[in-house]
Design goal:
- 46% of the residues lie in helices and 15% in strands.
- The protein is of the alpha+beta class.
- It contains 10 helices and 8 strands.
């Protein structure tokens, strides 16, 4: 009888432990959403890394895709890297750079914009290109946004109940912005264990939609040739292609003597020093 009671006690303890773990996971997930906390990729995970001036930040492929769009939309509008930094710091906090279809009240999307507050329809806000554009529209209406504290500018746009929440993401946002806008040449790399089938048409459409008239794109049998309006824009286009290497089957990216070759096992480093405005993108065969 004692053994039976002991077994029952052990079983009850096990059930309670499992229940607490589940509840704890749910609570942590909720806190992660509202505090802007996101999972940092482990070394073996598919991921991208942005580096600039000795600082680096790792993001998931999902985050890289979204961050690249946010950056491209800013560049297409002729905005500086600082604008992209503010946008990225905001979306780090609001959604963890994820395009969420849920949030507080009717908040949704990368920036947790609310249809009821005039940001657009649900369908519009869930389009990263649209939501990034609406954020920049609001940003340009903030007085002295080019010089004011990044956190304070983000708060002026978002009007959050947590006015200091964006500050903790500024350093990560700066590194990611510098790489994706081309301010930090060769500062962006990704790896994915497996990539989609080569899709030159899809990649060309995505780069054109993101960067607009900042690039000229020619399709070739091997991939794409992209000419940037400036050297910096060329680097932005190169990094944009790498951010989507997994989705479009990007194998190699070159820019005037600098080369990046995708490696499914490790984060490939750029080799050489790039110059000029021509980017060639090779796709998987």
């Amino acid at each position: 009888m004692r053994r039976t009671n002991g077994a029952r006690v052990a079983l009850v303890a096990l059930v309670l432990a499992v229940a607490l773990a589940v509840v704890g996971g749910v609570i942590w997930a909720g806190l992660a959403l509202w505090s802007g906390t996101t999972k940092t990729p482990l070394p073996l995970d598919d991921q991208c890394v942005a580096s600039s001036e000795g600082a680096s930040v790792a993001v998931t492929l999902e985050q890289a895709h979204n961050a690249a769009i946010i950056s491209a939309v800013g560049l297409r509008r002729g905005l500086p890297a600082r604008a992209v930094t503010i946008a990225l710091a905001t979306t780090y906090q609001e959604s963890g750079i994820r395009n969420l279809d849920y949030g507080h009240a009717d908040s949704i999307g990368l920036f947790q914009q609310r249809p009821s507050k005039g940001w657009g329809t649900v369908k519009q806000i869930m389009d990263p290109y649209y939501s990034a554009g609406k954020f920049y529209d609001a940003l340009l209406g903030v007085k002295n946004w080019r010089t004011r504290d990044v956190n304070d500018v983000a708060q002026a746009v978002q009007r959050s109940a947590h006015p200091e929440a964006y500050r903790k993401h500024v350093s990560k946002a700066r590194a990611l912005s510098a790489a994706l806008t081309g301010v930090a040449p060769g500062g962006f790399t990704c790896k994915a264990g497996s990539s989609e089938q080569a899709d030159g048409k899809g990649l060309a459409a995505m780069v054109r939609k993101g960067l607009g008239s900042e690039v000229t794109i020619t399709r070739t049998e091997q991939g794409l040739v992209i000419e940037g309006s400036t050297h910096q824009r060329a680097w932005a286009a190169a990094h944009l292609a790498i951010a989507y290497a997994d989705e479009f089957g990007v194998r190699k990216v070159s820019l005037g003597g600098a080369d990046w070759t995708h490696d499914t096992r490790t984060l490939a480093e750029w080799t050489g020093t790039g110059s000029g405005r021509i980017v060639t993108v090779g796709l998987s065969s």
